[in-house]
Amino acid sequence: MISKIYNMNIFDGENKTELYDWVRVGYTQRAHLLAFLSRCYPSYLCQTAERGKTVNMFPLVLTVEAPCGQMTWHIDRNHLDLFSHLELERNNWDGTGDDVRFERLGKCGGHSE
């Protein structure tokens, strides 16, 4: 999604650099939150099943096995050190997408719509 926004013509060269900086900061904050979550629930890393650019940027997937269900996120290669406490295991992704993940995350936090 970020690459789609980045490639839109509404951002010129200078603004694209600023956008990239904000995205980088956002991904860093996201990584720290996910590292915290991975210490709260049984979690592991696995190889991404995707090919191409995704593998280069996000080589591993964090899998969190919470009481509300499995949740997964791709991990940026620049943030792998935050997850050094986790083992690399076989990919057991349950096939759910973002909508289910956020629903489960809300249930774990006691927030359901």
Give the gist of this structure.
This protein is α+β, with helices and mostly antiparallel strands. Helix content is 43%, strand content 17%.
How does this model look, in words?
- This protein has 113 residues and is an alpha+beta fold.
- It has one domain (2-108).
- Helices cover 43% and strands 17% of the residues.
- The protein is built from 4 helices and 3 strands.
- It has helices at residues 2-6, 13-40, 53-57, 98-108; strands spanning 43-47, 60-66, 69-75.
- A 3-stranded antiparallel beta sheet has the order 1-2-3.
- The longest helix is centred in the first third of the chain and has 28 residues, at 13-40.
- The protein is globular, with a radius of gyration of 15 Å.
- It starts with a helix and ends in a 5-residue tail after the last helix.
